[in-house]
Sequence to fold (249 residues):
Amino acid sequence: MKIKSILVTQPEPNTIKSPYSELAESTSVKIDFRPFIQVEGVSAKEFRQTRIHINDFTAVLFNSKTAIDHFFRLAQELRVTIPDSLKYFCISESTAFYLQKYIVYRKRKIFHANGSMTDLLDIMKKHKEEFFLVPLSDIHSQEIPKMLDKGGFKYTQAILYRTISSDLEDLKEMNYDILVFFSPSGIKSLIQNFPDFKQNDIKIACFGSTTAQAVREAGFKPDIEAPTPEAPSMTMALEHYIKNINKTK
Fold:
């Protein structure tokens, strides 16, 4: 069965040219976008109850742009002035550049990795004296805390936002050849919104080992997995699979 349509369970990229638009063009496949999850910020009142004080920390670890948004949102709501001396450790260069939305980039101490926690921890080892704040979602992988514990870092986790399932009532049927997921929360949303969902001939693509595991635990089969050495991005994994199935060049 040829692949003709894909549903990506994330918001549509806000740029005209994106890896997905290039994928659609190179494979002649229709790609739709529909977020299966939403992010809801923890209120200032809730955060106060944790007794975590932002200015007790000398460094902050950001593994996503969403974490950055909610860190600065809460700081504003709590009327906390972020000191210029605070050090920022980011999972990737794009995450680090996103800080420009909130701070004067060139005047801050900012460090970034190549997209992996292992690389970021190697950078952090030179700053073992710092006390790290680690903003996270209520649903998160235990990989980061485990790696920080193993590395002997002084840190505190802070839940700054929650991941909740979207209402997908407008999606009456799953008339797609491939469904693309990026987190266990997306799989949870699928089950909540479509309790009678049967995979049948639908292919499921998943990014990350925890997402793949969630697919299996839900009783489905992950047909396309990323990242891999051959396909470090989801769009590359999709392109390889589609061209193999559709026999295109």
